[in-house]
Write a structure and sequence with these properties.
The chain is mostly helical. 73% of the residues lie in helices and 0% in strands. α9 packs antiparallel against α10. It starts with a helix and ends with a helix.
Length: 406
């Protein structure tokens, strides 16, 4: 498999995906993510975060500023993205080299999260478990290191959560608690939610009530929220979160929703594919809640996990009222799909769970297909048919598959 990666990485990836339990599969997935960075392509006029990252490399390469000066001037709280950008800029002005290094970091945590879940699955995979895993694979997918800070922080946070919840390894939580200070400050919110669970423990009925409240009754008053932030939150966090709490930005988003739910330019599948995922997860979460006594008897640790999922979803639903707050839904969805994949595979389902599975399977497949379609915005021809040696000659000149097809 290793030699094939250097000849044709995409073929090596397909083989690795066929059997992610293979001892080398996670490393092939890891290296392929870096290869995506080497063959990165974007549409003309793109406002992708990766453009800003690459522009910083060119500016820093011709600057004599020290890293400490750079860090202080940035106003950031977390430092990892700044450090990797500064490191790459020390020897090149080519921003695409930064994409390779970002792919290496992101790909490590992404690949380990994927293989962790697969190693928890017992026996031959059930149809619904496969569907859940495919969905898990694309909720925060390979190409999301385009938004390096937040989405890398997502996989680092989940990397810490999975061993704790499914294997009882408390030491792994250190990854969760360092995430806001190393990768993205916004993860102070998931850390606080996790801390709340660690203090309150198993309060399933309480968390479920809060979850239901968040679905039907919770609408965040942005002015009141900002008042609390300005009164109780440290100044540095206030400054960094200002754009995420912008009332003007929120009002613009509301105007767009009135025209056509997020964007008049989006087609129906781009609007509803995330809703399909959400409805599917909620269906199973409701099923598990009403079967909680059975779950407690057969899989007591799963009740604790369900408590965390419901608590996290409740906060995420409320925070989704903020500009950019909906990203927390992707974080909790990633963990929820890990839970659903493992539990549906390792437990014996009843007639109702099988009926729910057949109803939601098309919705999850719909989400999977639309999500994979987004890879065309960043994958190039070289990503699919090239190799690392060819990519060295095409770096920076690749055309994304979406533009090529159109």
């Amino acid at each position: 498999m290793w030699y094939l990666f250097f000849i044709h990485p995409f073929s090596a990836l397909l083989i690795a995906l066929r059997d992610l339990r293979h001892k080398h599969a996670n490393n092939i997935l890891w290296l392929f993510t870096a290869f995506v960075g080497l063959t990165w392509a974007m549409r003309d006029g793109s406002t992708s975060d990766s453009i800003r990252y690459m522009e910083k490399v060119a500016l820093l390469h011709h600057s004599s500023i020290s890293f400490l000066e750079y860090y202080i001037a940035s106003g950031e709280i977390d430092f990892f993205s700044l450090a990797i950008t500064y490191f790459v800029a020390s020897f090149t002005e080519n921003g695409y080299i930064l994409m390779v290094f970002q792919g290496l970091v992101y790909g490590f945590f992404f690949s380990r999260n994927m293989t962790f879940v697969l190693k928890q699955l017992n026996g031959n995979l059930k149809f619904i478990s496969i569907i859940f895993f495919l969905t898990f694979f694309v909720v925060v997918p390979i190409w999301n290191f385009n938004g390096f800070r937040f989405w890398t922080a997502t996989h680092v946070f989940i990397y810490g959560l999975l061993p704790y919840f499914f294997e009882g390894k408390r030491k792994s939580l250190i990854w969760c608690f360092i995430t806001p200070f190393v990768f993205h400050y916004a993860f102070i919110v998931p850390v606080l939610i996790l801390s709340l669970l660690l203090v309150l423990k198993n309060r399933l009925n309480l968390y479920f009530g809060f979850f239901v409240f968040s679905l039907f009754f919770a609408e965040l008053d942005l002015k009141l929220f900002n008042a609390y932030v300005e009164q109780y939150v440290p100044q540095q966090f206030q400054e960094r979160s200002q754009s995420y709490r912008s009332e003007a930005k929120f009002e613009r988003a509301q105007e767009v929703r009135e025209v056509g739910d997020f964007s008049v330019e989006k087609s129906w599948h781009a609007i509803f594919y995330k809703k399909a995922l959400t409805w599917s997860m909620y269906a199973f979460l409701l099923y598990y809640f009403f079967r909680r006594k059975h779950l407690q008897a057969k899989h007591p640790r799963m009740v604790y996990i369900l408590s965390f999922v419901l608590l996290f979803f409740a906060f995420a639903n409320i925070l989704a009222n903020l500009p950019s707050g909906s990203r927390y839904l992707s974080v909790v969805s990633l963990f929820t799909l890990a839970f659903l994949t493992i539990n549906t595979q390792n437990s014996i389902g009843d007639r109702l769970s099988k009926r729910i599975s057949w109803v939601i399977a098309p919705l999850l497949l719909f989400f999977f297909i639309v999500s994979v379609r987004q890879a065309l915005y960043f994958f190039s021809v070289t990503t699919i048919i090239g190799n690392p040696f060819i990519a060295l000659f095409t770096i920076g000149d690749n055309i994304n598959l979406d533009s090529l097809i159109k």
